[in-house]
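Record 1 of the preview.
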Amino acid sequence: MVVNILQFVWALFGWRVTVDEEHIPATRHRLKSVDTYEITVSDFNRIKLEAGSVGTHLQFATALVPLSVSLWITLFTVSLETVARYTILVFAVISLCEGVFHSALAYRERGRFSQMMEDLKSLQAVPFGSEGNELKPTDLASLPAQQAGPIQIPIEAPAVVVSPSDQS
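->
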């Protein structure tokens, strides 16, 4: 009885009630087009390594620089004992140096991940045919075979090197 009332109230507000715990209702929407890329295992590992470290320096810089600024403000505005003052000074200097270091590294690495992804995209093979009329793999098999011409490789004569001991 209570379950029926709750289901009625939920349906009144347009909420879906999941009765089956194993199957979640999902609505599928068709995509107009999907671009796919083929990559090798080494490229995938490169993406994994690059994506893992892409924001680390920026995160350290955004944490350490404000920390340093707040410590410097504390040093100049609050009267503290000598030991506490030197402790805050040491932390302020260290956080400032580390923040500047990580800021410089983050600035140097900006755009590196997107450039790597563009490099991987440029390695992809271009489909055969004109745009909109690309040939499918089954169409490629039905194309007439052509006789390959002879391959000409220019061969240069080897350079003769005469050492001073051979001149006698």
